[in-house]
């Protein structure tokens, strides 16, 4: 047999074949998670498929004589549990089902308009005082994020905070990063504050049962609330003082959105001459389908103003078009199509909203899981699909106002959109987008506010005070949202972020494989080598730092899956409290401040805040270091080592 041939029992560079394969899968996953060449949920699905294929493929290779024996990564040889059932366990896990139910509960609260009403009360209090605005933003999102998913809380509150900044003539950049960070503080208050906590709870309970460690159990509802309150207070003080000084005002306070997106050189009005060659043609044929980089924003015909769809309208002499284009293209367009520039015309928000005297100009953020991610405005037929015109695209600090139809869309991209009020409503109701301004919605079920809030309180109470587990309580609450009319039956499917569910189901088996193959023990061995020279509290802090750095690069849920087994193994080898080490990993994975890709809420505010990638390091780095110390000391003081 060739020396290079691997088998289940062969050790290669200190690794068994199973561990070597698992580490190879982890390495590939880390690269894909960090680069996002493909969406994170697809990467997770790839992990799952790779793990499921290892055993049957190596069994076949062993039958052909290529290997001495099959390689096992999901089950021990001879186990009664099949590799398939272990691999697919993520879809049936308590964590996955609980997170799914929490999305439904959050949607039930959102549909009543309760959070929006609360936000309007806050806006009346803050006025144009930036200190009040910042304090109210942090003070509102933190406690709310403890009881509805913190990602959902940011999605709900982002329009309110953006409007708060505009009305108070403040930079939205000064408020949106604190909104994201504060939601993470809130997520550490309870078990249901974030999917990370729920996943960590399940993994901890499983390891406790498998390893026979009595102190490792699923978290109770308020297991770490005391430490979460400390983290929230310290984080709030930081954001109100040092963080406020470090947070840049990337977007200058502006009177309207056209000014904010610097559209002065890209928006103008032209009139169709009597002798224009395009008179009598349909707008779509004459202008929309041309090779010019131009968008028709609206048509003014005598006293009437028309928005999308403009394509079928026949062009008449004297028609005035508001257009989005650059100066060079405008000159060429005027020569070819017989158009004259209207002198001394400034196209502002007021001008663009004359069609309906309503909210026709809005910022729209591409949400995680959006079907438009990876598409372009052209390939997605955005204009025709949504009856809306994109005037500009902001990606972090970069503004794109030319050839936007060729830009591949990413999560967090912010589009400046002109549309009818009906189209704005459709965009607001579409899970692909977050409309970053408050949009008046007549379909809020305000009469159901007490019911929805009561259901969430009931879920928390059942899980905290009775033997009913969190998954059962959350599913019961989800059913209650439908039976009481807070949600329509068809709305529950739109409420769920399916990319998160697939991500959870895909990465959970990776943690199982890490344990089964001894991969977690090998990583732990490396940490323990240096641990004897360090006090246990320093090792605890090291687990926090390693997890935090990992989380800032890859998914927070993936980092929990990888690091909790390692943390338990390190604690076991050092004969210290494993539960303390689990909490260190959990808190670190729930608080990723240093990159926009570390946490979904950071991506939500990346475009609307106009941030640079380095802004997260500048503001989030000191906060991450501060909380590393606070969390480590807090865990040691409360739970002991």
UniProtKB/TrEMBL annotation:
Residues 255-339, 349-433 form the RCK C-terminal domain. It is a multi-pass membrane protein. GO terms for cellular component: plasma membrane. It is found in: Membrane. It comes from the Archaea. Its main location: membrane. GO terms for molecular function: monoatomic cation transmembrane transporter activity. The keyword Membrane applies. InterPro entries: Cit_transptr-like_dom, DASS-Related_Transporters, RCK_C, RCK_C_sf. PANTHER family: BASIC AMINO ACID ANTIPORTER YFCC-RELATED (PTHR43652). This is Di- and tricarboxylate transporter. The gene is citT.
